[in-house]
Write a structure and sequence with these properties.
Elements lengths: L12 E9 L5 E9 L5 E13 L5 E3 L3 E8 L3 E7 L8 E10 L2 E9 L10 E2 L6 E5 L1
Antiparallel strand pairs: 1-2, 1-10, 2-6, 3-4, 3-5, 3-7, 7-8, 9-10
Amino acid sequence: MIKDIQPKPIKNVVIAIVKEFNELNQSNWNVYVINLKETTLENVLVSSKGYLKLDDGSETKTSLLRHSLGNIAPKSFVKIEPIIEEVFGLHNEYWLSYFSKNQLLDKKYVFLAETIKKENFTTIPLIEKQGVMIG
């Protein structure tokens, strides 16, 4: 029975970590969900956490945070949360869930430890700033 459920793959919805500057020219990092689709994402929920298991078996993890973002219009973006550079050494996971055409969809996005860095920057669509994204 569960084998008969065919999850629909999510395309054109990305999570991006963007380096921005405030009015004092200090850098901030923010996490965004970007809807590149032509349809609205309804009742968007995102959970976020950071974690890393070391070779010696010890584990580091952050608190699990949950965010209710409401609806995200086509070709737009919404900030999920700020993020600090101290957690870039962890795997940063974002679990996105939303409704589209009365169907519940979800996807896990994981920024692996040490991948949020300048060498991996690209111009983030719609936001038009530098950062790292997963689609």
